[in-house]
Structures are given as structure tokens and as C-alpha cells.
Specification:
Length: about 250
């Protein structure tokens, strides 16, 4: 698969998302490279018992992405609702993003500007202090945020397999290579911005293999109206990304 074709696939979705400025400052969400390699699963960065004992309430920072399309806000809101629901079903108490943003405004006003007004240099010390004060004010043990990321997805024959999922990509089984896809990233952090948990779940591919002639195959971009529109696929991706947070099941029979 040529670089020019990959660039064409990425072009259908690559635009900068108009994010909420306040939540963006708080989360410090670093945009992943467009069409980066599909990320391996990582999960907990600290011992599981320690995490479950200490992290029970999470301040929610929303979900970020560099993908945008018609009806974008509604679909992202639906995705966030699924994310929050699954976090709660995993045993966490979630403080809504609106309350987190309100607390951030209050504490950041006391802490001072996070960027030097003359040089623009970021003041990490103030940022950490603001996060710590916000988390204490809301009685949280950490922060939770999500990201819909564009990744490179390997496929072979008629299947694409990445980030814990496998989907049909079309064709008759004579093609292999890479396409662009979307994955959901679940990220939990402590007050200083250090990761407590990171994992991923594949959502969908952005192209399919189609027959271009009697003996040849090619690629066809999916309609942008289909992005994040499959609730089942969205829920599956979030569930996969949060798999490492679920408590192990105890067998009563031993």
C-alpha cells in the first residue's frame, strides 16, 4: 500500500477538532500522530491491588479526537456516555466533566497563568498544583479521559485485526497490507498527569477492499456519515479498552 494512498485515506477525516479550551488545558491531551501504528495493550501502570484500593472516584475530562464530521458533537456525546457508563459498571464513581471544568476555573484563577504571557512557555509546576487542588476539591482519586485515535491497521485476506478486535474488510482474500482505522484509548491519570492505566479497543476501519475488475481489488473509503455511528462497535471498543480494569471473577466452586 503506497504512502499516497494512505494520505488519501487519512484526508477524509483529518481536521482539527474544536475542543473545549478549559478541559483541554486541564487534560493536556497530546494529539497522537495521524495514522500512527495501532497501539499494543498496556493496562495498569501500578500494582492491581494498590490501584483498586486507592482509586475509586475519578474526575472525568471528556473524550478528545482529531476526527470531525457532520453530526460530530452528537456522536461524540453518545460515545462519552458509553465510556462513563462502562467506567461506572467497572466500579468507579465518576465526577462529571462540567464539575471538573468549574473546579479547574476556580483553582487556576488562584494558581495563575499556565503559560508565560510574554514567551508562551508552559509552567508545569502551576499545572500540577492546579490539578492537585481540583482533585482535592472534588474528592477524586484520579482523572479519566478518552481519545478516538486514528491508527494504522494491518489486514490479511478479508480481515483486519487490531486492538483486540477483528472486522471484515471485504475482498476475496488475496490482499494484505494496511488501512487507516479508529481506536478508542482509555487513559487514567494521577494528579500530576502520570498514567495509572492505558489501554485500547479497535472501533472501525476507514476503508474497505472492493473488486475493481474481474481479477483486481482496490480500496474504497467508507462514507464519513458512518464514522462512530455503530453503537455496538463503539461499546465493544470501550469494553475492550477497559478490560484491564475489571476485577477477576471468583469461581465459587474453586
Amino acid at each position: 500500500m503506497t504512502r499516497s494512498h494512505l494520505d488519501r485515506l487519512v484526508a477524509i477525516v483529518r481536521r482539527t477538532m474544536p475542543v473545549r479550551a478549559v478541559a483541554m488545558s486541564l487534560a493536556m491531551l497530546t494529539a497522537a500522530g495521524c495514522a500512527g501504528i495501532a497501539q499494543p495493550h498496556s493496562a495498569l501502570r501500578v500494582p492491581a491491588d494498590q490501584f483498586r484500593e486507592q482509586v475509586k472516584t475519578l474526575c472525568f475530562l471528556g473524550t478528545n479526537t482529531d476526527v470531525t464530521f457532520d453530526d460530530f458533537e452528537a456522536r461524540m456525546s453518545a460515545l462519552e456516555e458509553l465510556f462513563v457508563d462502562q467506567l461506572e459498571r467497572s466500579g468507579f464513581t465518576i465526577v462529571p466533566e462540567e464539575r471538573v471544568v468549574e473546579a479547574w476555573r476556580e483553582v487556576s484563577a488562584d494558581v495563575g497563568d499556565l503559560h508565560d504571557r510574554y514567551t508562551g512557555q508552559f509552567n508545569r509546576d502551576r499545572w500540577v498544583v492546579a490539578r492537585q487542588r481540583a482533585i482535592e476539591q472534588l474528592d477524586c482519586d484520579g482523572y479519566a479521559k478518552g481519545r478516538v485515535a486514528q491508527v494504522r491497521v494491518p489486514f490479511n485476506d478479508t480481515k483486519a485485526k487490531w486492538d483486540g478486535v477483528e472486522v471484515a474488510i471485504g475482498g476475496i482474500g488475496r490482499t494484505y497490507g494496511w488501512v487507516t482505522g479508529l481506536s478508542f484509548w482509555a487513559i487514567l491519570e494521577d494528579a500530576e498527569g502520570e498514567e495509572l492505566y492505558f489501554s485500547t479497543g479497535g472501533i472501525q476501519v476507514l476503508s474497505r477492499v472492493v473488486m475493481k475488475g474481474l481479477f483486481s481489488e482496490g480500496f474504497e473509503d467508507i462514507d464519513p456519515s458512518g464514522l462512530l455511528s455503530d453503537e455496538g462497535a463503539n461499546e465493544r471498543a470501550i469494553s475492550e479498552a477497559l478490560r484491564g480494569l475489571r476485577r477477576p471473577q471468583v469461581n465459587p466452586g474453586g
